[in-house]
């Protein structure tokens, strides 16, 4: 055998040393191999090396790769390309083929790693783990230049075999370390007696471990503690319940919690949700309903059905007695208004009473029987009726205080005005204008004005200076005044709707009508009074408005009649006043006599006109404000004192009051023109028309006045009263003026007739005037004593005057009529 081997070696050496007779270049060899490949003599794949001088088959390349991996255990594809001298593309392709055929190999991140390599790595890791008790996967991945996930996937199947440890939260722990930490978790968990957030507990344990292990120790993740804790709970070593994964409630706390709730609820038949929150029960309603299905959840407490039975008995008694009940006085003090409202709605007696309209719930806790509320309403309505008839303003709103004061002042003045007698000179004024309005009526024309107050009642027609307006009769003016007051009526309705019973007045009445607060245990009566007032006030307001509406409807007709009558009176009186005013021009040259005549006209005719106007406007104002005003028995002649005129003027609203006060002040003046201006302003503000005296109407009035005076002179038997009438008649005949002169101005008036009468007539007039003055002087000087002779002288003087009366009458009537 050895001889044969030696022979073969010698032959091989000879063959190597022999020189060939034909030499081929590298190019010829390449072309030859290519030709053989094209002729399919070489029918397998050949791979070029990087140098291009060698060929290698894929099978050989795979064999070489497998050999390198088996030797090294972990090799990079780049290193394989350098070792085999083949392009990286072919190395990667064949490496994938090698890995797919051998399950013990893996291709990760350009490297081929065998399981034997991982076994050796695991052995190294185990040795290190036993030395330091714990190792972080991140640290191992950094050392091995692979990902942590790969390290974890490789170590997991080797735990307990090659690697003696436990993998938790990216950390490797030895069994001894795990047992030690498990003991810490068990002890800490069993020491908890109240609901605790486990994350806080894990933080405490982490700090404790860091203090034990020092700076070299690896931080333990909370998930490691949590996994250990979950295992302890599954094994029953720690008792309790989880909530939201991190909130732990020990069983000992839950038992104590339930015992506390059971004890309190059994003793009090209720428990508040705030108390449940203090016990650590975050959802008290669900907790209580699960333990006490028969219980009733309220807003702030949970009650036993016996609480409803107790309240139901008290409510049933209150309804039977026709009284009221504050449920909070029956329920425990811890109950709130919302709890009382809900428990009231659950009482059977309340439900049946509400359906039968036998009870009412006001506010949250007050229950009133319907009979009680009806009785209170009837009594308050009677109080309102009393105030309505008396015109009291205490039930008005505070915003209407000015209307209240006007109403009060108007009532006092209207009562006082009835005690005065009528004026003395209205008869002549009335008779003097009977024929005036019967003249031909003209078309109306006027301007519409609105006062600064903005009230619709001031939108009236004011007569212009056109002659057509001056010829209108009484009927036309009355209809215009009625039309002009429509806006005022609408505004008056609106004003009445605002005058309603105030809440303060109603609460005062209820405090008197519902006195049993202390018996019900109500500390603050204003609370229940406000609820009762809020319920009753709308009904009382509707009743009040209906009553006021009915009263106003009645007052509308009265207001219309009042304005018509006032317009008629003003038509007569104002025309007479203008007629008398023209006579004053005859005495403007005599200042003393002129002042006397002006004052006499202001105190007689002007005062009568002002009294009638103010009185009627005062009644109209009261009717507009919804007050009840009795019809005046003697409205033709009204006499007011200066104080009453001022009070009435001040009771008018806004600009009416200013113009009425100007009229009252004009009566105390010395000029009739001032009064006439103030009268026109007030009439214009009130929507009344004042006719202007024209020539035609003046002749008619003078004729009527002359005829009336003639009949009076003809029938007069008193010599003292005869003289002023004769003088007035003479002025009509001579000057066509209607003179109204007082007694002390008669002498001046007679003197002014000297140039207008013949001597005999003037002598008769002066003699009669002188005798009249002497008679009046004797009558004023008489003492009434029987021994006094003045009575004889008076009698003789009267006989003298009576004897001269026919001659005096003849001056104005003629001899046949005298």
UniProtKB/TrEMBL annotation:
The keyword Transferase applies. Residues 4-288 form the E3 UFM1-protein ligase 1-like N-terminal domain. One of its GO terms (biological process) is regulation of proteasomal ubiquitin-dependent protein catabolic process. Pfam families: E3_UFM1_ligase, UFL1, UFL1_C, WHD_UFL1_5th. Residues 563-693 form the E3 UFM1-protein ligase 1-like domain. The keyword Coiled coil applies. One of its GO terms (molecular function) is ligase activity. GO terms for cellular component: endoplasmic reticulum membrane. Keywords: Coiled coil, Ligase, Transferase, Ubl conjugation pathway. Residues 549-583 form a coiled coil. Residues 407-496 are annotated as: Disordered. Residues 407-422, 483-496 have a biased composition (Basic and acidic residues). Residues 698-811 form the E3 UFM1-protein ligase-like C-terminal domain. Belongs to the UFL1 family. This is E3 UFM1-protein ligase 1 homolog. The gene is LOC111285036.
């Amino acid at each position: 055998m050895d001889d044969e081997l030696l022979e073969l070696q010698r032959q091989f050496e000879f063959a190597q040393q022999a020189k060939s007779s034909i030499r081929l270049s590298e190019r010829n060899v390449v072309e030859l191999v290519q030709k053989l490949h094209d002729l399919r003599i070489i029918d397998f794949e050949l791979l070029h090396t990087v140098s291009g001088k060698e060929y290698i088959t894929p099978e050989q390349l795979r064999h070489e790769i497998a050999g390198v991996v088996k030797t090294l255990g972990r090799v990079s594809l780049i290193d394989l390309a350098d070792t085999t001298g083949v392009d990286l593309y072919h190395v990667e392709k064949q490496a994938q083929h090698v890995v797919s055929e051998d399950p013990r190999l893996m291709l990760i991140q350009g490297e081929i790693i065998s399981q034997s390599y991982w076994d050796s790595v695991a052995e190294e890791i185990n040795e290190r783990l036993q030395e330091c008790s714990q190792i972080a996967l991140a640290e191992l991945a950094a050392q091995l230049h692979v990902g942590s996930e790969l390290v974890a996937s490789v170590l997991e199947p080797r735990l307990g075999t090659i690697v003696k440890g436990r993998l938790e939260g990216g950390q490797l722990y030895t069994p001894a370390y795990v047992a030690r930490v498990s003991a810490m978790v068990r002890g800490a968990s069993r020491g908890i007696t109240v609901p605790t957030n486990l994350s806080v507990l894990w933080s405490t344990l982490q700090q404790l471990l860091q203090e034990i292990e020092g700076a070299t120790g690896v931080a333990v993740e909370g998930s490691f503690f949590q996994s250990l804790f979950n295992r302890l709970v599954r094994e029953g070593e720690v008792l309790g319940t989880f909530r939201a994964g991190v909130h732990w409630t020990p069983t000992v706390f839950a038992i104590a919690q339930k015992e506390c709730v059971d004890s309190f609820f059994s003793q009090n038949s209720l428990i508040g949700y705030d108390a449940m929150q203090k016990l650590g029960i975050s959802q008290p309603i669900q907790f209580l309903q699960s333990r006490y299905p028969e219980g009733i959840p309220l807003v702030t407490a949970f009650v036993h059905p016996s609480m409803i039975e107790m309240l139901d008995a008290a409510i049933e008694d209150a309804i039977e007695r026709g009284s009221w009940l504050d449920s909070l006085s029956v329920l425990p003090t811890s109950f709130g208004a919302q709890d009382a409202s809900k428990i009231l709605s659950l009482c059977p007696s309340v439900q049946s009473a509400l359906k039968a309209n036998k009870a009412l719930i006001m506010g949250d806790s007050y229950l009133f029987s319907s009979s009680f509320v009806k009785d209170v309403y009837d009594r308050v309505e009677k109080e309102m009726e009393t105030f309505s008839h008396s015109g009291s303003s205490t039930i008005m709103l505070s915003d209407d205080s000015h209307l209240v004061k006007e109403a009060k002042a108007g009532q006092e003045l209207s009562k006082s005005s009835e005690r005065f007698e009528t004026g003395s000179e209205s008869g002549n004024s009335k008779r003097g204008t009977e024929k005036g309005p019967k003249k031909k009526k003209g078309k109306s024309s006027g301007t519409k004005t609105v006062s600064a107050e903005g009230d619709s009642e001031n939108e009236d027609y004011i007569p212009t200076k056109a002659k057509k307006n001056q010829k209108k009769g009484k009927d036309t003016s009355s209809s215009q005044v009625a039309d002009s007051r429509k806006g005022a009526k609408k505004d008056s309705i609106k004003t009445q709707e605002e005058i309603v019973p105030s809440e303060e007045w109603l609460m005062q009445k209820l405090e008197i009508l519902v006195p049993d607060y202390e018996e019900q245990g109500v500390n603050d009566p204003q609370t229940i009074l406000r609820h009762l007032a809020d319920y009753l006030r709308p009904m009382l307001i509707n009743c009040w408005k209906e009553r006021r509406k009915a009263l106003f409807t009645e007052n509308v007709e009265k207001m219309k009649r009042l304005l018509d009558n006032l317009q008629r009176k003003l038509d007569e009186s104002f025309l007479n006043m203008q007629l008398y005013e023209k006579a004053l021009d005859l005495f403007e040259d005599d200042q003393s006599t002129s002042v006397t005549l002006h004052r006499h006209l202001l105190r007689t005719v002007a005062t009568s006109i002002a009294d009638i106007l103010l009185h009627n406007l005062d009644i109209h104002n009261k009717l507009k404000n919804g007050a009840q005003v009795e019809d005046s028995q003697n409205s033709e002649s009204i006499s007011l004192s200066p104080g009453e005129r001022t009070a009435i003027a001040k009771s008018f609203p806004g600009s009416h009051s200013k113009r009425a006060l100007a009229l009252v002040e004009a009566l105390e003046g010395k000029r009739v023109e001032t009064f006439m201006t103030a009268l026109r302003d007030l009439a214009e503000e009130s929507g009344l028309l004042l006719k202007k005296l024209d020539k035609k109407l003046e002749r008619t009035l003078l004729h009527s006045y002359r005829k009336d005076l003639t009949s009076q002179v003809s029938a007069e038997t008193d010599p003292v009263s005869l003289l002023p009438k004769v003088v007035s008649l003479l002025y009509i005949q001579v000057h066509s003026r209607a003179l109204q002169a007082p007694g002390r101005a008669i002498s001046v008036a007679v003197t002014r007739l000297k140039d207008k009468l013949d001597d005999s007539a003037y002598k008769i007039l002066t003699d009669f005037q002188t005798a009249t003055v002497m008679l009046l002087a004797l009558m004023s000087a008489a003492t009434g004593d029987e021994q006094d002779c003045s009575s004889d002288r008076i009698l003789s003087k009267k006989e003298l005057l009576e004897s001269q009366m026919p001659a005096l009458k003849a001056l104005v009537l003629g001899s046949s009529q005298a």
